[in-house]
Amino acid sequence: MANNLARKIEFNPEKETKAEQAQQMVLNHHHVAWSAFEKSLLVIGTLLTLGLMTFLVSSSIAATSAQHELTNVQQLVAKGQNNVSDLHQEIGELTSSARMNKIAQSKGLTLIEKNIRTIH
Fold this sequence. Notes:
mainly alpha, elongated
């Protein structure tokens, strides 16, 4: 009852070498000339790259310049607000009732309470 299930494979070396020869590719290392389309693509790509680089640098310089100008304007506005604040404080000091009473007394004026009307 011995059953041989193994396949019978015949080896033919001639078929093997022909298959290997068909699969080998021959590489040619000679210089291939560029076509006009490839040259124009290279020139257009180079010009486009240089143009975008120039645009990027100029826009960066413009942004930096605008930032410096904004900082200068903000400093001027802060100085103006400080001046306005100082002037409001000076107005408050000059119109204070204590100062008015002192000036009135130095000029010989007196305060009559019944002539003062308080408005709320």
